[in-house]
Amino acid sequence: MTFDEAALDALRADPRVDWSEDVLRFGDTDMNGHVNNATFAVLCESGRVNLFRTRLGHEDPKDTFFVIAKLVIEFRGELYYPGRVRTGTWVRHLGRTSLGLAQVLLDGDRLAATSEAVCVHMDGATRRPAPFPPSMREIAERSLLPDAA
Predict the structure, then answer these.
(1) Alpha-carbon distance 36 to 28, whole Å?
(2) Residues 6+ apart with CB under 8 A from 104
(3) Beta strands at 110-123 and 98-107: parallel, antiparallel or unpaired
(4) Are 55 and 139 in contact (CB under 8 A)?
(5) What is the spatial distance between Cα 147 and Cα 138, in angstroms, rounded to a whole number?
(6) How many CB atoms sit inside 10 A of residue 38's CB?
(7) What is the structure's pLDDT at 56?
(8) Mind listing the domains of the chain with CATH numbers?
(9) What whole-number percentage of the chain has pLDDT above 90?
(10) Smallest Cα–Cα separation from 122: which of 52, 31, 73?
């Protein structure tokens, strides 16, 4: 995914993008003095969880859940403690049982990373992929932003 300043401004203004913010902790740093690469995955998770909780969670039947099937992170810049990171998350693709998500991690106005993920909707009893209920599919379709990246 490539983003220039105009593309980032468009994401900031788009209501389909769900934003969350996390505080960087001293324990997130490594011996090189920057935030460890594993923390980037945690920041991405925080953004995904926020999207599911605020946009899709109330439509998800109680016996279903999401699992992550794929995660790709492209590191664009270092993060340092102390600091805050804003994560923008949006639905890029909608399948029968899965969502393709895209993310940006911002340190102020600076792009620190991009991420792509595939999350599969699962049935708790069978532990197999489950189609989205119609109400969840409708919400996800309204949130679809396929051409942002």
Answers:
(1) 6
(2) 3, 8, 11, 87, 88, 111, 113, 114, 115
(3) antiparallel
(4) yes
(5) 19
(6) 9
(7) 83
(8) 5-143 (3.10.129.10)
(9) 82
(10) 52
